[in-house]
Design brief:
Layout lengths: L2 H31 L5 H78 L6 H30 L6 E4 L1 H14 L5 E6 L5 E4 H18 L5 E10 L3 E8 L31 H11 L4 E5 L5 E8 L6
Parallel strand pairs: 2-4
Antiparallel strand pairs: 1-3, 4-5, 5-7, 6-7
Amino acid sequence: MTSSSIWLKKRIWIAPVILASILIFVQIMASVFGLVFYRNYFYLVMIVFVMVLVAFLTERIEKVRTLNQLNEELQMEREKLKAANQELETFAYSVSHDLKVPLRAIDGFSRILGEDYHGKLDDEGKRLIDIIRQNTKKMSQLIDDILHLSRAGRQDMMLTKIDLESLIQNAFNELKQSNKDRNIQLEIEPLPPVYGDRALLQQVISNLIANSFKFTGPRETALIEVGFQVGKKEYIFHIKDNGVGFNMKYSDKLFGLFQRLHGQDEFDGTGVGLSIVQRIIRRHGGDIWAEGKVDEGATFYFSLPVQNDIN
């Protein structure tokens, strides 16, 4: 509701009050100076005033009653959400413990089978054992990613001043150690400090830089560029690479859970990483999106408030 409409409503019920006050004053003055004043006019205006006042008070009471009802409904929804979060924690524990135990058993016994019966297995048998071990590893990684996604939306955040440039450099250096045979270059411009949860933002940077490493795999020289621009009330950071890119027609699927724009045989992954990134960035009051072209690279943008007012 605009201020002009509020003022209009106020004038509707203030007008009779002013008119009644004027008439009371006129009646008093008429009595003092002995003038004739028709009381019926006065009574009529007073009745109108009382009716308007009653209507106004009734409206206020109804609004208060509606507000109290909404507060009660909101409290009930909060209790339901709290119960749902507790169930989610129980589920997360079940996933991390109950599902990983049989996975470790499958991986362990298949490893023993491959080692102890290596001489008795033909090439096809050895290949099948390798497939079993590879898939148990993927399943274990998928469980870990689902747990990270769950925790990213529930864990308390400790907001501190963060040097985002150092996070990016550290993530790049760690990945470079495991890709020493590749020519990967990082160009990063000086970045402003941000306020956020260090552990969560570390996950964001690690996921985005790892994506650039992965999708620049076919390039002889991979280039990752990091920069930023100042928005209205936020910093907009970007991480750009010269990798295989993607078709913008399917950009809405990028941050969907288990959504993949490339085949499993082309690039490894569980399809959960970008969902984790999106959830973390939105918890910080920002947003994330991407642009790209097939075989011409991709650019991921994410925004973080200059002054973070997250509760």
